[in-house]
Structure formats: structure tokens, C-alpha cells
Amino acid sequence: MDETNRRVAELLHFMGQLLEIRGEDTFKVRAYHRAAEQITRLNRSLRSMNGEEIRQIEGIGERIAQKIQEILDKGTFQELETIRAGIPATLIELLNLEGVGPKTIARLWRAMGIQSLEDLERAARGHRIRAIKGFGERKEQEILHAIDLYRRQGSRMTRLQADQVVQCVTAVLPLGTYDVAGSYRRGKSTIGDIDIVVALSPSSVNPRLREIAQEVIDEGDRRTSIRCEGQRVDMRFTKENEYGSMLLYLTGSKEFNIRLREIALSRGLKLNEYGIEDRRDGKLHTFPREEEIFTFLGMEYIPPEIREDQGEISLAFQHSLPQLVSQTEIKGDLHTHSSWSDGHLTLEELANAGAAAGYLYLLCSDHSASLGIAHGLTEEKLRDQMGEIEWINRNSPCQILTGTEVDILTDGTLGLSGSVLKDLDLVVASIHSGFKQERDAITRRMITAITNDHVDIIGHPTGRLLGERESYDIDMIRVIDAAADARTALEINASPHRLDLDDLHVREARNKGVKLAIGTDAHDEKELSYIKYGIMIARRGWCEARDFLNTMDEDALRKFAS
Ligand code: DGT
Ligand code: CA
Ligand code: CA
Ligand code: ZN
């Protein structure tokens, strides 16, 4: 979705929630929610619309149109800020809890005076929630679970947020003087904090950091920590001739560092963030570059993404690490949306964007209409689209493959009939509803789709939304085994909000011979660049080029699908 539209929709929705917490009349509340919903369905940016056009959007009246204008001008609107100021911020924070909505919050506030996460946790642990009419023991447990989840993941950044923080900090560092290390460099799907190694003197860097920092947590000659965009950034200063050692150390992971250090020690070598001391002759070796450390130890270079102490160290000593897939080997994106559904690009623009990205093909996988998902396509529309794609492909260096992202219905059947699915190049099938089915039911539902002859790829297999929604309760081992048997590919959805499958499942799938498909789920041209996040996850899952559909040429891909 367009970033502006996303932001506007979020604020309107938020306004609705605040009004609901205050117990305002439902008519007003619904108007805000409806407006937000309409905006998520728009297929053009509000930025490109004038006041008249905004007023004409269905479900948006004069009042809300004005608020939207205010948001576009100032980033927020006055009424929202006034209402927000009248409700405790710690109470509003409860909206982040899964399964806890404004209605629940309003009741907790009124009935028990609960104003914060801590209040709520205490009340739930003390079994006082079940005393409220209609809440019960189950609700109490759900709340405790949601609090636990929020504490664990609510505090980690998405890759998108991490990139923003990195951009903000590195803007004051000359190129070539630093590397971002830590989990960021290892390509993890979420990031705790940002770690940066810099080969500059602290006296030159610290004043610059002070200028951009929201808060200086700790300033020094060896390290400085600041807060930027609300996130912690740890900076380590190093001399150029010790740069390799510091980068290796700060990249981690911690488990990798510990294991490597142990192994070095067993050979009489003491390894730390400054260099390697040879205990036999007392000589100190320093390393400007990371590669030189691996060579010194007699190892193959281990790419950062697999430095997790998961067997890579011994393979590196045998010089038999996998050849991890790289972005240049990717021939196309296997999950995109066009303006025929909720995307922003016309088919022609999509083909051009694919060509600009250097792709041979792109799969256009618009939603099916079955669930009334934003602008889902009926079979008839899908056939029209296939016709237009054929026409566009005649003049395009990047071929659009015809496809759909069809809903897996609650019983495992699909939202479109086989008669249309069989005529598409590739079919992605995903779960978009019924997330609460119990484990065995949803696992069998998924396996039914996997074994459906028309399905080529399972989209975002666990359904998680990072920081927002946990995956549905599904037995991924059974799913992976079924995919291996049926020769159905599993997706690595590369959207930084999903990254689904994640590394461990990817590795499991690869080990069992399941083919993987990287798709960005792009709704505009910029989002095609999300492919890089998918590659990181693929590399963390030890994948090589041959593990993917995306590395096949078009003919091989069609053969796989048939
Ligand atoms: P994060 O920030 O939670 O996403 O994960 P990391 O891996 O970035 O962890 P962080 O920021 O705590 O530390 C950065 C690196 O510093 C880590 O990847 C490895 C190294 N490191 C941290 N703690 C230790 C430790 O206790 N021992 C060793 N050997 N290295 C450590
Ligand atoms: Ca970190
Ligand atoms: Ca850190
Ligand atoms: Zn989807």
C-alpha cells in the first residue's frame, strides 16, 4: 500500500479506536473506521488527489475529508491530538495487545480502573478479569499471552524500521569508514538494536552523533550509544588495522563468537575483538579485513547470514559451505499485485518495473474475489486480465506470468474454480481468514491446498505479521513434509512486515527438498526492492540457487507448474 495512504488510514482508524475507548456514540466511531477501510482500498495515492476528489471517495464525508487534508498538511489532526491528550498514554498502549480492542479497554478502564500494561497483568494474574461480566477465564489467559507476546516482539524492529535508523545514523559517517554489524548484518527478520563499527576517531564522530541523537545514552572513547528514531544504536570505534576483528566480533552471533573462540583456543590462539594472540610465541596478529581472520584460521569465509553456530564452523574448516544464493541469480519476482486488485501499478507499469529490476519475468498474483478482499478478481475479470497480459507481453522484455493469489477457504478448497486455475501460469494459494482454527484443522486445511493439483506455491505459509500478529497455530513440519511429497513450493514472502517463511523453516524445507519461491507481495514499484529481504532469509536458511523457482528460466518454471 502507498505509504501516505497507510499513514492516513492508520490515523483515522486510531481516531475511531480512541472514540470507542471514550465510549462515544457508535455512529461517529464507525464513520472513522469505514473511512480508514476505504482508504486502504484506494488504488491511488491521496497525495495525488485534490480536495474534491477526496470528498468523492465513497464513505468519506465532508468532516473526515477535512481531517484527511489536515493529515496531509501536518501529519496529524487537531481533534485527534486533543482526544489523545485526554486519555492516559499507558492505556492507549494496550491497543497493541493482540485480541484486546478498544471495547475491552474501555470496560477494563471503567470497571476496574486499569490504566496500563502492568495494571492489566496484575489483574489477570490475580484472576480479577474473570469477574467482569462476559470476560471469563479464557479471556484472562488470552490477555496474559498477548502481554507476553507484546513484550517479546513488540520491542524488535522490522527491517524497514532498522533501515531508517541506519540511514539516519550513517548519514553523518563518510562512506567506507563503517559497517553495520550485529543481527542487521546477519540478515535477521527482526532487529533488537543497531550495532555499527567505525574506523574513525571518537573525537570526530561523537559531536556529530550528538547532533542527530534523540538521546545520548552513553558517550565514550571506545563506544558510544545513542537513541535515534526511538531505537538504540551502539557504535564501536576501532583502529583501521584492527577493523576486521572488531567487525567479526560485533557481527556475532554471540553463540558463533563463543564457539569460534573456543576452537581457536584449542589451537593455542586467543581470539578477541582486537586480534589474535598466538599463545605459543606470544605474537599478536591484527586484521584490517574480516576475510583475513578466516584465512589465518585455515577456514573458508563464512557469510554473516549463517554465523549462528548451526554447523557452519566445522563445514568452514572442511571448506564445504553451501554456495548461498545471491540476488543476481534471481530471474524474477513470484508475488506481485497490480491495479486490477489493490496494487498501484497497471500491468504495463508492472512489466516495465520488472524490466527495470532486470527481471525476465514477474508473476502477477492478484487476489481472488472469494472473500471480498480489496478489489479481488472474479473468474471473468481474471480471464480479461490474462488477455491483456498476453497483449502486453508481446512488447516487453520482462514477461508477466499469469497467476492469482487464491484464498484457501476454511475447508481447504480454493476461492476460484479449477477451470480457471488450470489456465494460469502459476497459482499461489494463501490463508487470509479463519486464523483461529485449531492446530490440526488448520494444518489439514493447508495440506488440502498443498495437494491440490492447481496449486504451485503456498503464500506466506505461517500468516504472521511481524510485531502485529502471531502466526496461526499450524504444524509446519507436517506442512513441509506434505509440500515435499506434493512438489508444491513454499513462499518466502519478502515483505518486511511478514518475512514468512522465516530462516529455520526455510532450512527445514530445503533439507527436505521443497522448492522455495521468493515473492515481494509488492503493491508498487518501490516494494519490488523488498526482494533483498527475502534473499537474506533464504541465505539464513542455507539456500543455494537450485533451491528456488525464481532462479529457473521461464520454460523450467512452466514445466514445474504443469
Ligand atoms: P539483536 O540486537 O538482539 O537483534 O541481536 P545482535 O546479534 O545484534 O546482538 P547484540 O546487539 O546484543 O550484540 C551485537 C554483537 O555483539 C553480537 O551479535 C555478538 C556480540 N556479542 C554480544 N554479546 C556478546 C557476548 O556475551 N559474548 C560474545 N562473544 N559476543 C557478544
Ligand atoms: Ca544488535
Ligand atoms: Ca547492541
Ligand atoms: Zn496474501
Largest sheet: spatial strand order = 11-12-13-14-15-16-17
- Rough outline: globular
Q: What is the helix tally?
A: 24
Low-confidence segments, given as residue ranges, are none
What is the CATH topology assignment of the largest domain? TIM Barrel
Mean pLDDT reading: 94
Q: What name goes with the CATH superfamily of the largest domain?
A: Metal-dependent hydrolases
**Which small molecules are bound?**
2'-deoxyguanosine-5'-triphosphate, calcium ion, zinc ion
Q: How many strand segments?
A: 17
Number of domains: 4
Percent in helix: 40-55%
Provide the CATH architecture of the largest domain: Alpha-Beta Barrel
Major beta-sheet overview: 7 strands, parallel
Radius of gyration: 26 Å
CATH class descriptor name of the largest domain = Alpha Beta
**Terminal-residue CA separation:** 32 Å
Oligomer: single chain
Question: What fraction strand?
Answer: 5-15%
Description:
It is built from 24 helices and 17 strands. The protein folds into four domains: 149 residues, DNA polymerase, domain 1; 81 residues, Beta Polymerase, domain 2 (2-Layer Sandwich), CATH 3.30.460; 70 residues, DNA polymerase, thumb domain (Beta Polymerase, domain 3), CATH 3.30.210; 235 residues, Alpha-Beta Barrel (TIM Barrel), CATH 3.20.20.140. The radius of gyration is 26 Å and the shape is globular. The strands form four sheets. The protein has a seven-stranded parallel sheet. By secondary structure, the chain is α/β, with parallel strands linked by helices. Helix content is 43%, strand content 13%. Helix 1 crosses helix 4, helix 20 packs parallel to helix 21 and helix 22 packs across helix 23. Strand 13, helix 19 and strand 14 form a beta-alpha-beta unit. The protein starts with a helix and ends with a helix. It binds 2'-deoxyguanosine-5'-triphosphate, calcium ion (2 copies) and zinc ion. 2'-deoxyguanosine-5'-triphosphate binds next to helix 11, helix 13 and helix 14. 2'-deoxyguanosine-5'-triphosphate (DGT) binds next to helix 11, helix 13 and helix 14.
